[in-house]
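Lab notebook, bench 4. The sequencing result for the construct came back, and we need a structural model before the next group meeting so we can plan mutations. Quick request posted to the team channel:

Model the 3D structure of this chain.
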Amino acid sequence: MKNIVVLISGRGSNLKAIIDAIESGKINAKISLVLSNKKDAKGLEIAKIHGIKAKFVDPAFFASRKGYDIYIAELIRKEEPDLIVLAGYMRILSDEFIEAFEGKIVNIHPSLVPAFQGKKAQKQALDFGSLITGCSVHFVTKELDNGPVIIQAAVPVMPEDTEESLSERILQYEHRIYPQAIKWILEGRVYVEGRKVIVKGAKYGSIPINPSLEDF
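Done. Here's the predicted structure in token form:
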């Protein structure tokens, strides 16, 4: 069975979507560890409720981001993960961490990458006046929110939208495309050629989600 480690900072809604996909049998894997850089992250409680080992590691005890990442990398190595999933993890990973798990880290970002990278992507879309935004699952590289894209969902921006309302509508798609991308990766169907990602057997050309969802 494939093994996943999840990094979180907040409420853990994407973590819960992944757990639900595993418990329903859609993803044949286990989450062996959930790590958080925030003590009060609700995702830690979600993990514990589902019998998953959960740990808070305080960045304040480390002199640098690199030192923190070296420490958590050692914790993660002990789990021998097939995939490391960033689910609302609000720290920029050091180059050393990314090199240690190169090609095995994925993230979900609330925009159509490469648009609106970094924090508050939903607010960025509203401030820019975009009529369409969305969410992207991508591999993590040293360039922030700019790794090869696996799947994207397009979400319309409404005239009356606030940051909160737009974020909530995007989140509904996040909960579908993230488990799907994880399933494809763990099934060995995802191939990366430079910046181009191909999911073997997937149906391309669909809207609002491309490639098409199969299980979610």
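The longest helix spans residues 163-186.
Will bring this to the meeting.
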